[in-house]
Backbone:
């Protein structure tokens, strides 16, 4: 050391937060921990860093991972650093850039950790089961804890049976150990929609490929918020945002143990010739690492959004270091080195996204540092046997092991058909379930969405519209020339957008005076035709006297 002095080394008295973080680690993985040591030195720090080394009584098994970590007081988290195991596997070492409270963690299968414990005891080394005060009562002990090796096996998702009658065959399988578990059925709110659900039955996630345009989709991973995360990150850093989008498959990515579901109309399968309707390909090494540490951070106490955010940014920020890596252990090691070098920048970006989500500045900054610290520990301890074995097996599976085929009746083109306007509603949007049905209709051609749409649909279940108790309503409005592949909805009498006042009169519509509002009833439900320059510009079901619906 500088000046010939030696650092002071003594067993550390852990604070309550430091001990609590180790308690949290038990929920993520099985581990053995050396006694935390408080290392201090009053002189200058060596140029190029100092080397920490810890020796074990017997060689570490091949299927364990080990890391040194220090206690970060500012963010109240353990920060792992790149660590090497000697060729004889008797020591671990790391080059560090400061002294503080340091310890080592060893993680692996229960069998491997039990062997380490037993051999250490046989060699006369004290072994203590981890408790929050263990380091104060057994300063020379290895501390061990059997928690939960992070993996995932899930129940079969539940679907409303049967599938729509236009589906002839859609085999899903029921294997409890399948890497993805599927179900198929119909949408209770719209029985003509095919519903597909897929759950990731592993401790890591999968990209998702759907070869159809769904009417709606839902992803329990980060509560359907992956697209928003990608957008927010891209607004902060375009390059990192692009890499994040790649990792998260543009938002169609289902995390470990999570579920993604789709509502698919028959019209989106016109001319369907693909091999698979729904496929979850094997993840890349970077995607595997990202989704596994996301799950570990969530198991450690973070929310799904926080875990996904920290993991995705940690890996995305290290894109160049991982671009050519295909082996999991190498990917985790490269990512850990990158995160260690750029932890402040990564934490800052995590904090900014949390801030954009409404979190207070101080809380966002502290949580960001904690999340990045947990990500570093997860990266360091990632190579646990069951996950790597699962991943290695997954990469070797044939495509059809995680994919669905479909056989369907011949589907007639619907582009020249219009939605019917009846007392029940407009097309698939039911008057009695306006809010529910609108939440599931996602086809751009039917919703106000810009210049490419000739007509749009609006509606509400509010009872206080225009100052009166009016109940639910649906409105079809003209937002461009009524032309193109998808004609506007029409009544059984043929009244639609563009119909003339003469057409209305012939169909029995009435007006108190010759004005822009014309009325009729459909089985007791009022239909109002709003006209302009002698033609219908809007049709309102269930309301009298409403003005034009504002589209766009």
Residues:
């Amino acid at each position: 050391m500088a000046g010939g002095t030696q650092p002071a080394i003594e067993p550390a008295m852990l604070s309550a937060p430091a001990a609590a973080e180790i308690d949290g680690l038990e929920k993520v993985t099985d581990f053995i921990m050396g006694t935390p040591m408080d290392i201090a030195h009053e002189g200058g720090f060596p140029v190029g860093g100092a080397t920490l080394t810890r020796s074990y009584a017997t060689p570490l098994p091949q299927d364990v991972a080990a890391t040194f970590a220090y206690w970060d007081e500012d963010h109240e988290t353990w920060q792992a650093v790149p660590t090497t195991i000697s060729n004889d596997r008797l020591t671990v070492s790391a080059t560090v850039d400061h002294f503080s409270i340091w310890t080592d963690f060893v993680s692996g299968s229960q069998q491997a950790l039990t062997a380490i414990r037993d051999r250490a005891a046989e060699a006369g080394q004290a072994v203590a089961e981890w408790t929050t005060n263990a380091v104060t009562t057994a300063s020379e002990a290895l501390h061990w804890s059997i928690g939960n090796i992070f993996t995932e096996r899930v129940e079969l998702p539940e679907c409303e049976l049967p599938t729509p009658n236009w589906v002839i065959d859609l085999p899903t399988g029921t294997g409890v150990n399948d890497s993805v578990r599927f179900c198929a059925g119909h949408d209770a709110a719209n029985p003509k929609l095919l519903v597909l659900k897929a759950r990731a039955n592993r401790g890591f996630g999968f990209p998702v490929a759907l070869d159809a345009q769904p009417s709606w989709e839902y992803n329990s991973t980060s509560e359907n918020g992956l697209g928003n995360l990608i957008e927010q990150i891209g607004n902060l850093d375009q390059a990192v945002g692009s890499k994040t989008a790649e990792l998260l498959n543009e938002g169609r990515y289902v995390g470990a143990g999570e579920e993604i579901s789709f509502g698919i109309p028959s019209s989106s399968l016109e001319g369907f010739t693909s091999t698979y309707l729904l496929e979850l390909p094997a993840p890349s090494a970077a995607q595997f690492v990202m989704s596994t540490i996301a799950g570990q951070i969530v198991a450690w106490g973070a929310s799904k959004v926080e875990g996904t955010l920290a993991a995705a940014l940690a890996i995305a920020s290290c894109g160049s270091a991982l671009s050519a890596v295909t082996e999991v252990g190498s990917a985790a090691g490269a990512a850990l080195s990158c995160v260690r070098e750029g932890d402040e920048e990564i934490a800052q970006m995590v904090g900014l996204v949390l801030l954009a989500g409404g979190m207070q500045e101080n809380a966002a900054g502290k949580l960001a540092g904690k999340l990045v610290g947990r990500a570093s520990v997860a990266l360091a301890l990632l190579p646990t046997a069951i996950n790597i074995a699962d991943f290695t097996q997954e990469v070797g599976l044939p495509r059809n092991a995680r994919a669905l085929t479909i056989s369907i009746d011949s589907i007639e083109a619907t582009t020249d058909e219009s939605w019917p306007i009846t007392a029940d509603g407009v097309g698939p949007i039911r008057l009695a379930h306006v809010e529910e049905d609108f939440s599931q209709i996602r086809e751009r051609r039917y919703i106000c969405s810009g210049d490419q749409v000739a007509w749009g649909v609006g509606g509400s279940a509010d009872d206080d519209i225009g100052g009166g108790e009016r109940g639910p309503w649906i409105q079809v409005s003209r937002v461009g020339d009524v032309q193109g592949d998808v004609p506007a909805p029409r009544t059984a009498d043929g009244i639609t957008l563009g119909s003339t006042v003469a057409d209305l009169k012939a169909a029995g519509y009435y007006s108190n005076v010759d004005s822009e509002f014309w009325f009729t009833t459909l089985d007791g439900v009022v239909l109002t035709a709003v006209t302009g320059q002698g033609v219908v510009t809007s049709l309102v079901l269930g309301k009298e006297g409403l003005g034009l619906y504002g589209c766009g």
In short: The first helix runs from residue 16 to 25. The radius of gyration is 31 Å.
